[in-house]
Amino acid sequence: MRRADRLLQILQILRRERRPIAASRMAQELEVSLRTLYRDMVALEASGVPVRGEAGVGYVLEDGFDMPPLMFTAHELEAIMLGARLVDGVGDGDLSRSAKDAIAKIAAVIPASLRGHLVDTPLFAPHFERDGRPKLDIAVFREILRDEKQVTIDYRDLKGEYSRRTVWPIQLSFFRNAVLLVGWCTMREAFRSFRMDGIEHHEVLDDRLPIPRKTLFVRWLKDRDMRKHEWGETAADLSRLRGV
User: Fold this and answer.
1) pLDDT tens, 9-61?
2) Fewer CB under 10 Å: which end of the chain, C or N?
3) Residue 100: Cβ within 10 Å count
4) Listed residue (89, 79, 101, 102) closest to 179, CA to CA
5) Residue 70 phi/psi, 5° resolution?
């Protein structure tokens, strides 16, 4: 790999991550020595790229740095198309159309020599027919997530028990047999997952989330990791998260 290409790849790695990245990790991905990686970082800093590094922590690209879009590689185009086909297989109708529109926009601007790697990628994903279809439009809940609004749901769990809860939504999880709404349940005062096909009615509240969704997401990750450590993530364990 030419040095110019390697410097661009380093920038791409730094843009991809939000946390500091160890020099050893970048060197391993680029298949170069640590000495070469350190020289490259010095070259980037000398050219004015706001890279901040700390011994024992790693490198991070400071906010505010902008660079023109990079040309896609064949591997990146294959990944994009496979991702779009996965969305088409598991997402709602609006997401499926948006994935196809995004592919059309990308295909319109990339060189003809690369277009085949995108459009004719021999990588496919299945279309899943879920056992339980959501009673509500999933696109509505995606908008709720974007607006960071609270929502009250009338929910019936897998045991048939009914409850009315106020939820602070943090994400939608798409699985083969179900779509789950993950959020903080004010009734249980804990993070819970609700099957979308179990939500019989919902009401979007005027109140925004009292805590930013990104902060709630980080707390949910820590809570999930703690549960994994305590009792493992088996199929039986996961059932405890679905609206209990």
Assistant:
1) 898 888 887 788 999 999 999 999 999 999 999 998 888 888 888 767 899 88
2) N
3) 14
4) 89
5) -90, 150
